[in-house]
Amino acid sequence: MDISSSTVSQTLPLLKGKHILITGTTGFVGKVMLEKIMRTVPDIGGVYLVIRGNKKHANAGSRFANEIATSSVFEHLKLNSPDYFNDFCDNRVHCISGEISEPQFGLSRSEFRALGGKIDAIVNCAASVNFREELDRALAINTHSLRNIVELSDIAGNIPVIQVSTCYVNGFNKGPIHETVVKPTRGELTQHKSGYFEVCSLIQELELKIADVHSQYQGKELKSQLIDLGIREANALGWNDTYTFTKWLGEQILLKSLRGYSLTLLRPSIVESTLNEPSPGWIEGVKVADAILLAYAKEKVSFFPGKRSGVIDVIPADLVANSILLSLAEQFKAPGNHHVYQCCSGGANPLTLGTFIDHLMAEAKENHGAYDKLFSRRPRKPFIAVNKRLFNAITLCMSFVLLMASQTLGKLGWKRSLKARRNLDAAISLSTIFSFYTEPEYIFRNDKLINLAKRMGPADQALFPVDARAINWEHYLRKVHMPGLNCYALKGKSQTATNRKIVATSQKQAA
Ligand SMILES: NC(=O)c1ccc[n+]([C@@H]2O[C@H](COP(=O)([O-])OP(=O)(O)OC[C@H]3O[C@@H](n4cnc5c(N)ncnc54)[C@H](OP(=O)(O)O)[C@@H]3O)[C@@H](O)[C@H]2O)c1
């Protein structure tokens, strides 16, 4: 059969009756993926959700009921198919209380084995996405936990593993970045002939350094030293931060341990609000670009290090969920292979930082009143991207001037810190975390992902779109993302009417 001319979905029958273990469903990407499965793959066998207890909800079932099932991501499904939604939750959602960074997820040997006997594939979405996480914590969740995933896949009979990674495992590599195993730009790690890098002794060295820090410091100082250690080690080997470094290490563990078995490394770029599904603009949490936008909207930051001509790679979360499901279906179709896919926009539909800023600024100027959680008034200053050297020079001068001012005011009895000082600190702190991402010197390519979508055929391209060329950036940023950020992530005033308008516009655009 000529697959590319297939007019029926290949993905749906491949996922039919399958039981998928998913981690990270209390998070942003995990929720969007779970909703898509529930809504679009009605014949799925079931989902096993590994969730750890937290302060409010001690076990996975309680967290599912209170943090996942109640999420606005399911509004559409609950509205249109309330019985189906409840039935799915009751009969096909299986909650497992587990901490995936602990051996066997913290389950007993028999529980872990029993879990392995029930599942057909693993989608690992859990991670610490804190760029400046303490090194030991980041290693535990982003690297060591992959050994537990491998063990479970082994018990289950070498079932497919889809690892949700990140395009930024590419570290300091520059230029066009393809969907392959990433070679570090620094250090001298040995590459095995089958592609992965040997990282065991590097991880042992990191553990020794961590133990050394633990032996010397306590409390806040310990935390700060572990953060610094992570950044130092990441930089020394070619990554900007601890998050991306430990995610890369995790990829190597999987590539090595799952040689000859089914593994897909699925790397999204910066995941932002959904383009269309389940509703345009759905988003949870404030990360990367949105943290800077929020600081600007709150008049804390009006200039930032950035390269206006650089391609800032943003990808809507529904396209990420679709990529995960397509690559999962592919693994059921032809098991035993390794694939690397980048779910990104830079290569196919580049959005420069300059254009990104201009669209957001235009929306802020024209419609600031619609964003109660973002803007309290029309922005008075433009947002300016300057190069890092200039940013550092300006902040240094401003720091000096503000120090003088606060000393003088201190002598006059003024005790509070100056607002300008607080704003400057906010800008410096955001720049320390995010400036690597706003001065991009790389362009992520997704040719393999697009070919996968082509191979799956037109029906799957319509059901599970992954192609960023469908995005009209002006419309997306101004009429989808900003309203979504205000309404869903920041829980702003109900934008039901606005959302209805958005849906209508998006549908018109799609047609
Ligand atoms: N968001 C992005 O822009 C982006 C970009 C590229 C790649 N990614 C990748 O996409 C995936 C999901 O990211 P996200 O944005 O959805 O992150 P998120 O909202 O922070 O969610 C992270 C998820 O991981 C879970 N988790 C963390 N540590 C855990 C542990 N020790 N045991 C069990 N679960 C744990 C969290 O559970 P708790 O609720 O218990 O903390 C949460 O469900 C990650 O693998 C990330 O690397 C994200």
From TrEMBL:
GO: which molecular function terms?
alcohol-forming very long-chain fatty acyl-CoA reductase activity
Q: What are the protein's UniProt keywords?
A: Lipid biosynthesis, Lipid metabolism
Q: Where is the signal peptide?
A: none
Sequence ranges assigned to domain Fatty acyl-CoA reductase C-terminal in this UniProt record: 422-491
Q: Which domain of life is it from?
A: Bacteria
SUPFAM superfamilies the record matches: NAD(P)-binding Rossmann-fold domains
Matching InterPro entries: FAR, FAR_C, FAR_NAD-bd, NAD(P)-bd_dom_sf
Task: Return one Gene Ontology term, BP aspect.
Answer: long-chain fatty-acyl-CoA metabolic process
Question: Which ranges carry the Thioester reductase (TE) domain?
Answer: 22-324
Recorded family membership: Belongs to the fatty acyl-CoA reductase family.
- Per its record, how is this protein called by name? Nucleoside-diphosphate-sugar epimerase
